[in-house]
Amino acid sequence: AGAYTVTASAEGFIEQSVADVTVESNIETAQNFTLQRAIGSLEGLVSSAASAEPIPGAFVRLGTEGPTSAANELGRYRFENLLPGEVNITAGAPGFVRATEQVTIVAGETATLDIALTLATEGCDVVAFLVSGRARWVNGAMIPVDGAQGRRSAF
User: Fold this and answer.
1) pTM of the entire structure?
2) What whole-number distance in Å separates Cα of residue 71 and Cα of residue 77?
3) What pLDDT shows up at residue 152?
4) Distance, C-alpha 85 to centroid of its chain
């Protein structure tokens, strides 16, 4: 018998404790818990490696098939409600070489990943932006850039 601190935990959820739970001898005691998913956030800046200027409208994608976000007018992006762990982030913009970097998402925290893109020197990917804000490739499009052919590849 006595007062105890009771803790509930489960993988993928934030641990929760309740202090001063009174337990009496030979009497069943119940303590209810509502655990919240362990999630984190990611934010950052997409900029030009040459000038350090932000790249408005640059797109940023989580993983190889994950959601895609467009950087705002200040070149900033943000993803919320992410599960903890390592995730690859790919950023790109017309006229720049795509870059992929890895970041660790920690539950209850906001990770920061700034990505600097280098200018494309031989060609660039062609992207069409829809009103929904999602990027779509222009199938078969080829654009000459300083005498070189642009190329289409999956983002």
Assistant:
1) 0.63
2) 5
3) 41
4) 11
Q: Which run of H or E residues covers position 103?
A: strand 99-105
Over residues 95-108, the pLDDT tens digits come to 899 999 999 999 88
| pLDDT score for 41 | 94
The upper half-sphere exposure of residue 18, i.e. CA atoms within 13 Å in the direction of its Cβ, equals: 12
CB atoms within 10 A of CB 87: 20
The CB density around residue 139, as the number of other CB atoms within 10 Å, is 8
Pairing of strands 115-117, 99-105: unpaired
Please give the full DSSP string across 39-87, using - where no structure is assigned.
Answer: -EEEEEEEEETTT--B-TT-EEEETTTS-EEE--TTSEEEEEEEPSEEE
User: Terminal CA-to-CA distance of the chain, rounded, Å?
Assistant: 61
What is the pLDDT, as a whole number, of residue 63?
87
Distance CA(40)–CA(105), nearest Å, equals 6
pLDDT category at 5 given cuts 50, 70, 90 is very high
